[in-house]
Write a structure and sequence with these properties.
Length: about 150
């Protein structure tokens, strides 16, 4: 049952990405092209998603003490704005601006047969593996001048 629910939620997300045009990297890149063919539709997609998600989470946390398929909600515990957060955000934004895909939209784009999505997902996976190795080696703490 859990797998079916996860599949249906993923299918709903992917359908929304495809219908909104966000699986098309040219549409996303046009959002960043302020001097040329600027397309503000990405902002409307994000605003629409937030207008549904924010009240949905508020209602969920009020109505339930725990999720249906787990023992507790797994919410982020860290709240500090540190070098890892800023660096990760910068890498995410640069990758999004270069490729026109965010990780979430690249998966439905794979299903549409976009070759560029396959290249992006491969690069994303390599980047995740490199980041994990660097984290295990405590590279990030050393690079920021902290020990611990």
């Amino acid at each position: 049952m859990r797998f079916l629910v996860v599949f249906l939620i993923g299918a709903l997300f992917g359908t929304g990405i495809v219908l909104s045009g966000m699986a098309n990297p040219a549409k996303v890149l046009n959002f960043f092209d302020f001097a040329g063919s600027f397309d503000p539709s990405l902002a409307f997609v994000m605003a629409g998603a937030l207008s549904v998600a924010a009240p949905g989470y508020a209602l969920l946390f009020r109505a339930r003490r725990k999720p249906i398929f787990d023992q507790s909600f797994r919410l982020p515990q860290a709240s500090a704005i540190d070098g890892k957060l800023i660096g990760g955000s910068a890498v995410f934004g640069i990758g999004w601006g270069i490729a026109g895909f965010c990780p979430g939209a690249s998966i439905p784009a794979l299903g549409l047969g976009h070759t560029s999505a396959a290249i992006f997902v491969a690069a994303l996976l390599v980047g995740v593996l490199i980041a994990r190795r660097l984290a295990r080696a405590d590279f990030f703490a050393d690079a920021l001048g902290r020990t611990g």
